[in-house]
From TrEMBL:
<keyword id="KW-0408">Iron</keyword>
<dbReference type="GO" id="GO:0005506">
    <property type="term" value="F:iron ion binding"/>
</dbReference>
<keyword id="KW-0963">Cytoplasm</keyword>
<dbReference type="InterPro" id="IPR043129">
    <property type="entry name" value="ATPase_NBD"/>
</dbReference>
<comment type="similarity">
    <text>Belongs to the KAE1 / TsaD family.</text>
</comment>
<feature type="binding site">
    <location>
        <position position="166"/>
    </location>
    <ligand>
        <name>substrate</name>
    </ligand>
</feature>
<keyword id="KW-0012">Acyltransferase</keyword>
<dbReference type="GO" id="GO:0061711">
    <property type="term" value="F:tRNA N(6)-L-threonylcarbamoyladenine synthase activity"/>
</dbReference>
<keyword id="KW-0479">Metal-binding</keyword>
<keyword id="KW-0808">Transferase</keyword>
<feature type="binding site">
    <location>
        <position position="179"/>
    </location>
    <ligand>
        <name>substrate</name>
    </ligand>
</feature>
<dbReference type="Pfam" id="PF00814">
    <property type="entry name" value="TsaD"/>
</dbReference>
<dbReference type="InterPro" id="IPR017861">
    <property type="entry name" value="KAE1/TsaD"/>
</dbReference>
<dbReference type="GO" id="GO:0002949">
    <property type="term" value="P:tRNA threonylcarbamoyladenosine modification"/>
</dbReference>
<dbReference type="GO" id="GO:0005737">
    <property type="term" value="C:cytoplasm"/>
</dbReference>
<protein>
    <recommendedName>
        <fullName>tRNA N6-adenosine threonylcarbamoyltransferase</fullName>
        <ecNumber>2.3.1.234</ecNumber>
    </recommendedName>
</protein>
<comment type="function">
    <text>Required for the formation of a threonylcarbamoyl group on adenosine at position 37 (t(6)A37) in tRNAs that read codons beginning with adenine. Is involved in the transfer of the threonylcarbamoyl moiety of threonylcarbamoyl-AMP (TC-AMP) to the N6 group of A37, together with TsaE and TsaB. TsaD likely plays a direct catalytic role in this reaction.</text>
</comment>
Amino acid sequence: NLILAFESSCDETSVAVIENGETILSNIVATQIKSHQRFGGVVPEVASRHHIEQITECISMALAEAQVTYDELSAVAVTYGPGLVGALLIGVTAAKTVAFAHNLPLIPVNHMAGHIYAARYVKPIEFPALALLVSGGHTELVYLAEPGKFEIIGETRDDAAGEAYDKIGRVLGINYPAGKEVDRLAHLGEDTFDFPRAMDHDDSFDFSFSGLKSAFINTVHHADQIHETLDRNNLAASFQQAVVDVLADKTVRALQAFPDVHQLILAGGVAANQGLRDRLTTELAAFKNVELVKAPIKLCGDNAAMIGAAAYVSYQQQQFGDATLNAEPGLSFAYRA
Ligand code: ATP
Ligand code: MG
Ligand code: FE
């Protein structure tokens, strides 16, 4: 089985060739970060234009690197949501074109399911599993009862974790996306500010990061006004400690509430965070029957390999799309618990 997978939901144009849902033959990622940096975030119009310019070259490169021709493909997969509508449309249109020109089945993939399936490249998912999905636009705890079934048991009520990283990073003068650099600074500092850990002790599995973001920004602005200079490393460390504390505490409580879970999957762009990876590794030592599966750091950010892995499950379940497939910018998992 060979799947040609497309991802274009945000600011990465990516095309991959995946064998049997488990081996990456190629995974071309063309990032647009440089074009968006001067605006401090992703500009949708600019993103769409880049996707159009990049996508055919990405297809050629992905097939060439995998040494695969169109005739050998089994299916074409594509992210159809959630994401920026104009950006998604480029991938969806490209995938539909290849599928119908070469008479191949088309597999629509939810971008967030894709993020979870990046963990598939470490080892097969064992169900039931729990996923901590932390990215630029989402922060969710997802229960996976069986392949293809995703149930959100908790999610952020305001900002996503990655969004909070990017916004506080901006205050520290760090370019978008700031997560990786804040993570680096955090390891050089200490938690001296004691920022709020919202909802840490309530009964839900929901999160809130906007209060933390505001507390951080207010602290920095207040210091500016009185011409005081704060230690950037300690600021970063304090912010990161607050984020990691809440993410880890809620995840531990979810694991206690769902004792049938075999694996905890850590996925999404923020899953690359070293503080979070280390903390969960420590916490999971107490759960003898739960295996921690961290998505490979290289596959935490947006890429088409993760889309191909998720698509393979749909292929096995014979769940295909057709020419009416459209971009769904607000796509969510089927239901919330
Ligand atoms: P979504 O997947 O929710 O649609 P997205 O695709 O824009 O959003 P991802 O590509 O999954 O988001 O992740 C990007 C985010 O991950 C950015 O907010 C970035 O700052 C953050 N990030 C990347 N590396 C790290 C890190 N080491 N620590 C914290 N955050 C990080
Ligand atoms: Mg991105
Ligand atoms: Fe993403």
